[in-house]
Amino acid sequence: MGKTLRRIRRGGEMTALPVRQAELAEAWNRGFHAGAKRQNELDTKLMLEWLGQLEDIPGIGSKTATKIREHWLCFVNRAKDQ
To answer: How many CB atoms lie within 10 A of CB 65?
Structure first.
């Protein structure tokens, strides 16, 4: 069993060399932000698909669907402003 595996089994924290710590944090943040951006794009696409099919739900007519869409757009605009 190697030193690294023993440390993991004991619950010791694995730390990178101090020189590499900043590079690792920067790479982590780039990956995190890229993933968050992609997830936001997918969520928006899915929401737009749902908003396009509101009239298919029993009990929701064109007036109610329009109100729901307007409410969602106001919410998105407020979130974007913050």
So the answer is: 17
